[in-house]
Amino acid sequence: MTLEKNFSNLMVILVEPNGPLNVGSVARLCSNFKVDELRIVSPKCDIFSLEAKKMALKGQKFLEHCKIFDDLQKAIFDCDLVLASCGRIDVNKDSILVSSEDIFDWTLSFKKINNLAIIFGREDRGLTNSELLLANKTFNIPTSQINPSLNLSHAVSIVLYELNKSSKKDLNNKLKVFNLASSNEVHDTFVEIEEMLLRVGYLLKHTSKAKISKFKNYILRANTSMHEINVLRGIVHQINWFLNNSKRNKEHN
C-alpha cells in the first residue's frame, strides 16, 4: 500500500513498549505503510532482540535506525502536528476523542504538513492524561465497550490503514493552509501561563495542573493557529514585564 501523503514525514512513536514482539510487528508495519521514522520513548524491553527482529522482517531497518528518547516531549520536538491514540475509557472527561477515521479525514484536509507524529501508549495502560495533552488531537479506534483495548501492533495497523484509506478520498477541493500551533508551542505557552497564574495567586500549587489542563484542552479543541498562540504568549510576556517592573518600582520607593 502507498500513502498519498500530504505530509513530508510520518513518525510513529511508541511510549514505553514492554513487548519485543509488538515492537518488531510495529517495525514491520512501518515498512508496509511507508512510515518515515520509528521513535521509542523509554522502552521496557530489548527492542533489538532476536524476537523483535524476527517479527520485523523487512522492517528491521526501522529497529536499527529508530530514535530512542527518555521523555515524550523530547520525542515530538520537531513535529508540526501530533496525534495521540487513546483506548482508555477513564480518559479525562474534558478531553474530546475523535474516531480514527474522522481524525485522518481532518488531517488530510490541509495542503501540506511537514512532520506528522502518531503516538501510541503502553500496552497495559495507554497514555497518561498529561501525555495526551502533548498532542494536538486525541483519537480512538471504535471497538466494543466491553473490551475496548487493542493489542499495540493491531492498533498501529488499523491506524496506518485508516490513514492510507483517507488519503485515497477526494478531499482536494478546499484544502486549508496548515498553520496550527505545534504541540511544543502550545506546551511551552502553558508552562509560562501556569507560572504567571501561580505568581498572581489565581492558581494554587496543589490544583494548578488540573485547572491548567482544562484551559489547555480548550485551546487544543479550538485548533489554535501559530499566530493566535503567539498573541497569547505575547500577552503573558507583557503581564510578566508589568509584574517585574511593578516589583522593582516598589523596591525603589
* Oligomer state of the chains in this structure: single chain
The portion of residues forming beta strands comes to: 5-15%
Report the strand count: 7
Q: Would you tell me the structural class of the helices and strands?
A: alpha/beta
Annotated CATH topology of the largest domain: Alpha/beta knot
Number of helices: 10
- Rounded to the nearest angstrom, the radius of gyration is 20 Å
- Characterize the main sheet: 7 strands, parallel
Question: What is the count of distinct domains?
Answer: 2
Q: What is the strand arrangement across the widest sheet?
A: 3-2-1-6-4-7-5
Morphology: globular
User: First CA to last CA: what distance?
Assistant: 72 Å
Give me the strand/helix succession. EHEHHEHEEHEHEHHHH
CATH architecture verdict of the largest domain: 3-Layer(aba) Sandwich
| CATH classification class of the largest domain | Alpha Beta
Task: Explain how this protein is built.
The protein is an alpha/beta fold. It folds into two domains: 7-167, SPOUT methyltransferase, trefoil knot domain (Alpha/beta knot), CATH 3.40.1280.10; 183-252, Helicase, Ruva Protein, domain 3. The chain is built from ten helices and seven strands. The protein has helices spanning 20-32, 50-56, 60-64, 72-75, 100-107, 129-132, 152-167, 183-199, 208-221, 226-252, and strands at 7-15, 37-41, 67-69, 81-85, 97-99, 113-120, 137-140. It has a seven-stranded parallel sheet with strand order 3-2-1-6-4-7-5. Helix 5 (100-107) packs across helix 7 (152-167) and helix 8 (183-199) packs across helix 9. 33% of the residues are buried.
